[in-house]
Amino acid sequence: MNILGLISRNFRRDPATYRYPERHVPATRFRGIVRNDTAKCIACGICDHVCVSGAIVVVGHDDHCDWSYDPGRCTFCGRCVDLCPGEALSQDGDRAPTYARSGDLAQGEQITYPACPECGLPARPYNERLLMIAHDDISPEFRERIKLCERCRRRRSQTVLTKGLGGAADTERNADGA
Amino acid sequence: MTVGRALFQLLVFPGLLYAVPVAWLMLWMERKLTARLQGRIGPPFYQPFFDFVKLLAKRPLPRPPLQALAMSALPVLAVAGTLGALALLPVFPHSGGFTGDLVLLVALLEIPPLCAVLAGFVSRSIYGELGATREAVLSIAYSLPFLAALVALAAAANSLSLSVISQQAMWQVRLPALLALALCLPVKLRVNPFSVANAEQEIYAGATTEFEGPRLALWELAHGLEWVALTGLWAVLAFPAANAAWPLRAVVFVAISLALVLVLAAVAAATARLKLAQAARVYWLWGSALGVLAMVVAVVWP
Amino acid sequence: MRLIDSLVRTSRRRSPWLFHLNAGSCNGCDIELVACLTPRYDVEQLGIRLEGSPRHADIIVVSGPVTRTTRAALETVYAQVPDPKVVVALGSCPASCNVFAGSPTVEGPLDRILPVDVYVPGCPPRPDAIIAGIAEAIALLAEGGHA
Fold first, then answer.
1. Residue C92 at interface with chain A, using a CB cutoff of 8 Å
2. What ipTM was predicted for this assembly?
């Protein structure tokens, strides 16, 4: 009989049990609590947008952005991490701790917008990786321009444009005159 | 049988003082062996004791007075009945006993199942009633081989006294009778494959589904004592050496009881639960065949 | 008296019996809870038993966001568990209704209906997270639960 062989084999072998509190190492790429690296976060709000259970809420303000996350609400699906354009979000490799009161694990990060080097008003945060995706080759001039706030950037572009156009017109006129 | 002797048997050995720790030991052995056969660690050996204390310390739920009374009295009755049965076991055959104690033993051993049936109906839970009905059907089914085996033994020894039976019954009667009794043990103890009466996962805990706290603690104790009493009865009948010294007898009695627990637990771990009709058929057919065989041999082979 | 007290405390710590109530769960947490009984995790080593009857239980483990149909059952079962008792919320659903938040058929989260003592986060939680949560519940139980 099969069962007799089975139970006698079980009896001879050591139990397969992890003795509490011993525990096994979670699998690689285990999806635990989501962490936000504020240095990389560009406050785009995609994580809020894709979060199924509403665990991540992103609220933008004039000079900063509030990123809040409640693991007690999280499905640990990892969509926010997958879709984070700046790779700011990551997940712990281990399980979340237990807690005693609803919302105990909730965490908030504040993403402060950097000041514009020209006018001093808050500028949009940027992320090196995104730049690399958008532009293969970044000139120092471009890098400087990306730090500006939107208004200053527009003004800078306009200046460059008018300067460039003006210069071209001058050259043309001169050529005509010659 | 003097009063002192009777009190010793009831309160010390094989009664209260011996039976309660051994009941916990047996409950633990059963759980532990099952766990080991399933490749698990299983509970630590103090488990049944702490279960008992914890249940005692729980606050009972409010109930209507009559129901509360009945639900408290029934497990007490079951514990008392089993202890009484234990006290009658002739571990030391020269120590007394009286003619007819076999009849008393059978009656006392029937008390816990009877109480369980009543408990199931008193609790007014559908699962309790279902468990009680099954318990009742099974008790009718196993009573036939159980009683037949004991009657055959009594006929063979030509006595209704347990100590006489345990020594004088012939082996040709004793063997089929012991087999029939062994067949009755799993159903009386409600372990697989005859656990249909308390069928956990299916009807929760059967008759004791609605019992809580101290009342449940007493049921657990009664269940443990049933283990001691029934394996003890089997051990007494399986080891007749009348001339052995009393320490040897006691040791062999305990050893056979514990070995029987291991065998029953192994069988329980290796088998699945039979349906009510199947279980009843086993007892009516094979159990009765063994019992009748024992009886025929007892009558024909003097 | 102190001896009895400490004996009771120890026995509560050593023998917690669970009652599992599915309050509209998707079955994910339920499967993980049953996984705790398997040879790999074997909670019986801690004296834990999964009981079928709430009257036998010390710890009520609730999974699911508490749907409208399960609310009454939840309240009945809670009343049927004798004191001291502890409530464990299994997974994100009883803690916050998870993805079901805002549904008209959901009456959760659980702490609106019962006092919850331990939350085990996860969707579903790993068996060892569940065991850690129950271990915490056991510590509360030894101190007399919340009753």
1. yes
2. 0.90
